């Protein structure tokens, strides 16, 4: 390991700060849709957006999450191990508190804290973040986990996951699905694939700022933990989410305007390399009625992002507010 690469115990115990603001334009929403494949109407249709309670189309929630990681990479590089050849992001959680509209200006307030290392392999550094708009309202918050070697020559922990069986989900034409129709293991399927390319990695890195050495510097990456440039984990999640959402939208859902995207959390098990083909397997994990909102419930869907060898590189949970039949 290079002498300049800090071990976990040598990393700063506590850092905090705030990144520069950035305004969300209509072109940013369109660009993100093109980069990820999430062409949902609520993000791209101005006329439909005018009929919504906000009076406008809204930005993808994942724009704010992706910009959070990108701004940290640019202005707080220790939080993501931007120039650390042995560091890697192992997980992230993003909670969506309020919609982001075209014209909103976002900045990231963050606090990094070194966590206690367990064992002799890698130790975690957690960064909590808030994305604030121009009114100082939190629109997104969450945390990310960076793993650092606890000693020279530390080996990566084995976090492999068994892939779920490949299933085909064929929604019943004309049927509207309510919360009561979902049970653990139901609505399971597999998406089409998407090969991850140089254009994906460079385009996303330029758009978000998430373009550190592991993703953008071939010589740095070759000497690092993974031996070659890798796809940004957040980009892999964004693309896998969009592939799943495309399948999800084939299903009839209640036209109540109340369904909402509440939270995403993902864990990385292995990298996606440039040239890998990503597919997403999905299934229902849980469904329960809301304790605070009558007629609504919480629906949690599990996602597995697999490569062409059927290895699970990333696993995730998506939590949504979803109408009940009595709603």
TrEMBL record:
CDD domains: R_hydratase_like. The lineage of its organism: Bacteria, Pseudomonadati, Pseudomonadota, Betaproteobacteria, Nitrosomonadales. Gene3D superfamilies: Hotdog Thioesterase. Transmembrane segments: none annotated. This is MaoC-like domain-containing protein. Pfam families: MaoC_dehydratas (PF01575). PANTHER family: BETA-METHYLMALYL-COA DEHYDRATASE (PTHR43664:SF1), MONOAMINE OXIDASE-RELATED (PTHR43664). Residues 20-113, 183-249 form the MaoC-like domain. InterPro entries: HotDog_dom_sf (IPR029069), MaoC-like_dom (IPR002539), MCH/BMMD (IPR052342).
């Amino acid at each position: 390991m290079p002498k300049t690469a800090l071990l976990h115990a040598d990393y700063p115990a506590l850092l905090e700060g705030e990144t520069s603001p950035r305004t969300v334009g209509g072109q940013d929403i369109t660009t993100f849709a093109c980069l990820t494949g999430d062409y949902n109407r609520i993000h791209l249709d101005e006329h439909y957006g005018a009929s919504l309670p906000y009076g406008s189309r809204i930005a993808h929630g994942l724009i704010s999450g992706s910009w959070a990681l990108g701004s940290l990479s640019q202005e707080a590089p220790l939080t993501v191990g931007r120039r650390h050849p042995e560091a890697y992001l192992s997980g992230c959680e993003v909670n969506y508190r309020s919609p982001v509209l075209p014209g909103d200006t976002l900045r990231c307030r963050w606090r990094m804290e070194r966590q206690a290392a367990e064992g002799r392999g890698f130790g975690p550094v957690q960064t909590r973040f808030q994305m604030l708009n121009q009114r100082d309202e939190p629109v997104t918050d969450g945390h990310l986990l960076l793993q650092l070697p606890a000693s020279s020559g530390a080996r990566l922990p084995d976090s492999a996951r068994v892939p779920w069986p490949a299933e085909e989900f064929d929604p019943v034409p004309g049927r509207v699905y309510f919360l009561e129709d979902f049970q653990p293991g139901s609505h399971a399927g597999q998406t089409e694939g998407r090969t991850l390319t140089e254009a994906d990695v460079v385009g996303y890195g330029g758009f978000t700022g998430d373009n550190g050495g592991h993703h953008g510097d071939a010589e740095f990456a070759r000497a690092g933990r993974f031996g070659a440039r890798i796809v940004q984990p957040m980009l892999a999640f964004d693309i896998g989410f969009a592939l799943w959402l495309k399948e999800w939208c084939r299903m009839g859902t209640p036209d109540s305007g109340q369904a909402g995207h509440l939270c995403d959390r993902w864990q990385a098990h292995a990298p996606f390399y440039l040239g890998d083909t990503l597919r997403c397997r999905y299934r229902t994990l849980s469904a329960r009625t809301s304790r605070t909102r009558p007629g609504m419930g919480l629906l949690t869907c599990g996602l597995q992002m697999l490569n062409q060898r059927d290895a699970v590189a990333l696993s995730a949970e998506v939590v949504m507010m979803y109408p009940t039949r009595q709603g």
